[in-house]
């Protein structure tokens, strides 16, 4: 292996990196990649099945097959040029490194407590051997496994997490969907302001240097007695058009019996009920009202305004505790245990739809006929027409799974993604690499999408206190 010929870094990839992102080998720019033989063995054992991990492994195998095709032993030893495969936007292939396979025995004596028969320890042994054999090359182990990185640190091996899948560096930098305006906003922007009314909505055309920092469907407000709340409808350079937000805190403007209890909930209802918004993301901790608001708006649009044929609700089935095993029944019956939040909120909404117990029961049965529960496992290849699709617990989805779901939307379909980034249960996913974070960041510039982060819990004083102190 002619690794020392260049002064570039050499990244040794752990198996979980390739399982997580099959395009990882193309994500290290001009630096070189090394894949140990034990990683290929683990990939071979994980390629069978219909899970996303198995699909990712098969895609990795296809990439490696394309790279190694028509290559002789000398070419493999010298490193396969990753630019052989066109991957990613144009221009990304110009400066890209080489891929090296382990073609001979590489071993280094590990501590007695780390036997080499274990795959992770074999990889650590190979990294140590490479570090010793190529002292002028910066050898770095890349792994999604925290314990693997801890063991590497104990052996004085440079180890890093795989960062390319992270949408942002710090979750605190994630777009919140709302912004407080400066107290002197009108003094700065009132001179050239234009206002008009259209279809019972009030609009303002604002000019100013700070306008370019706004996003479509972002919610703006003033923290004073005026109670000014507006939605950015369009941004063109230093000119923006604002629309006054509707106030759903008033009982006369309730949505299926639900009133907004705070500013963020009011913004959420504005986005959920806007016919020009096709994609809504709602973030928030437990008890902020994400599911209740999404369901109330869906029932209003489906049963009162006839904008959609039915409501479809789905979620990733990741258990919090031990798995209870296989469940009997149809697809909807199998999903029922995962949909406790749906049932709880439908009970609340049904209780507000009538005065007598009979009316409430009839209303709840009518709502259940319009709400369908579907499993994520059977979404591939489907197309939803004129549906109101709610993706619950979306923080547990990978960016690829999120793309698969959102691309199911046909004409007239609206998708609502709700989740709490503090409650991720999927292995190797973090708040910065979650599919929910991914879509919030990628859709913030689209005029037909909206996002809002709900901040205040409204479930109960007990739930609010527990959320703060536990």
UniProtKB/TrEMBL annotation:
The keyword Ligase does not apply. SUPFAM superfamilies: P-loop containing nucleoside triphosphate hydrolases (SSF52540), PIN domain-like (SSF88723). The keyword Nucleotide-binding applies. Keywords: ATP-binding, Nucleotide-binding. CDD domains: PIN_VapC_PhoHL-ATPase. Transmembrane segments: none annotated. Residues 9-150 form the PIN domain. InterPro entries: P-loop_NTPase (IPR027417), PhoH (IPR003714), PhoH2-like (IPR051451), PIN-like_dom_sf (IPR029060), PIN_dom (IPR002716). Coiled coil: none annotated. It comes from the Bacteria. Belongs to the PhoH family. In the N-terminal section; belongs to the PINc/VapC protein family. This is PhoH family protein. It comes from Methylomonas rapida.
């Amino acid at each position: 292996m002619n690794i020392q010929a260049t002064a570039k870094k050499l990244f040794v990839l752990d198996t979980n990196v390739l399982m997580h992102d099959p395009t990882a080998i193309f994500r290290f720019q001009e630096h070189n990649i090394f894949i140990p033989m034990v990683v290929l063995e683990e990939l071979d054992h994980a390629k069978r099945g219909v899970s996303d991990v198995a699909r990712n492994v098969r895609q990795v195998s296809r990439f490696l097959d394309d790279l190694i095709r028509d290559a002789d032993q000398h070419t493999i030893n010298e490193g396969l040029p990753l630019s052989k495969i066109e991957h990613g936007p144009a221009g990304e292939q110009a400066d890209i490194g080489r891929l090296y396979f382990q073609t001979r025995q590489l071993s280094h004596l590990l501590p007695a407590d780390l036997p080499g028969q274990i795959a992770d320890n074999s990889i650590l042994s190979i990294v140590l051997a490479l570090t010793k054999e190529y002292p002028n090359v910066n050898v770095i182990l890349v792994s999604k496994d925290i314990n693997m990185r801890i063991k590497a640190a104990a052996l004085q091996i440079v180890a890093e997490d795989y960062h390319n899948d992270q949408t942002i560096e710090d979750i605190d930098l994630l777009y919140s969907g709302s912004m407080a305006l400066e107290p002197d906003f009108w003094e700065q922007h009132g001179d050239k302001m234009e206002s008009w009314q259209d279809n019972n909505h009030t609009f303002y055309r604002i000019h100013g240097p700070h306008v370019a920092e706004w996003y479509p469907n972002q919610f703006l407000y003033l923290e004073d007695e005026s109670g000014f709340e507006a939605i950015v409808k369009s941004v063109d350079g230093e000119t923006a058009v604002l629309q006054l937000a509707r106030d759903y805190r008033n009982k006369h403007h309730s949505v299926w019996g639900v009133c907004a209890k705070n500013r963020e909930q009011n913004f959420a209802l504005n986005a959920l009920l806007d016919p020009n918004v096709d994609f809504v993301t709602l973030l928030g901790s437990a008890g902020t009202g994400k599911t209740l608001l999404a369901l109330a708006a869906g029932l209003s649009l489906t049963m009162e305004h006839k904008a959609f044929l039915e409501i479809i609700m789905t979620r990733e089935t990741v258990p919090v505790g031990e798995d209870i095993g296989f469940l009997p029944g149809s697809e909807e019956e199998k999903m029922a245990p995962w949909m406790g939040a749906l049932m709880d909120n439908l009970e609340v909404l049904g209780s507000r739809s009538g005065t007598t117990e009979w009316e409430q029961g009839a209303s709840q049965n009518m709502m259940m006929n319009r709400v369908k529960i579907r499993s994520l496992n059977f979404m591939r290849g489907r197309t939803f027409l004129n549906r109101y699709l709610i993706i619950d617990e979306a923080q547990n989805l990978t960016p690829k799974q999120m793309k698969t779901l959102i691309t199911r939307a046909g004409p007239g379909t609206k998708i609502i993604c709700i989740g709490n980034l503090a409650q991720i249960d999927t292995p190797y996913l973090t708040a910065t690499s979650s599919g929910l974070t991914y879509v919030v960041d990628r859709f913030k510039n689209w005029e037909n999408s909206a996002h809002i982060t709900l901040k205040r819990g409204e479930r109960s004083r007990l739930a609010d206190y527990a959320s703060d102190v536990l």
